[in-house]
Amino acid sequence: MAKFIDKFMNWIGYTEEDYDEEAAAMEEEEEAPARKRRLVGLPSYNSALRVVVVEPNNFDEVQLVADHLKERRPVIVNLETAPMELARRIVDFLSGSVYALDGGLERIGEAIFLLVPSNVSVEANGFSGVREPLPWERE
Question: Who's near 87: CB < 8 A, 6+ residues apart?
Fold first, then answer.
């Protein structure tokens, strides 16, 4: 009966309830998983964008270009000194790579191409939409 009176008195605010530290610690441990927070990294806008310029002399070097695209770096590929057949194979491979990565490929010179990952957009002012043939298409 005394406990009932103590509880009633505590309920109406006349007495203080004894603080049980062990019970409070157990309650905090039970609530801890519900309070976990998930941290999410945001992209850094302070870092400088790096553009890679490549002039491949053999087909083995082209995989490095695709690796740069996978790491979300724009790449300029200069094929002016490459033999025609090699240049054709390189463009075919890089076109497929860019497509698979949802990127873009723009011709910016006679045999110079800009490849961009999906996080970069290219705007060309004054683009007429008329495309001149590639050097190996002229034959």
Answer: 79, 111, 135, 136
How do beta strands 75-78 and 52-54 pair? parallel
Q: What is the pTM of this model?
A: 0.58
Q: How far apart are CA 36 and CA 125, in angstroms?
A: 50
Can you read off the two tokens belonging to residue 49? 């964008």
Q: Which of 14, 26, 136 is nearest to 86 (CA)?
A: 136
Higher pLDDT pick, 118 / 123: 118
Calculate Rg over the CA atoms of the chain: 33
Query: Smallest Cα–Cα separation from 6: which of 14, 36, 19?
Result: 14
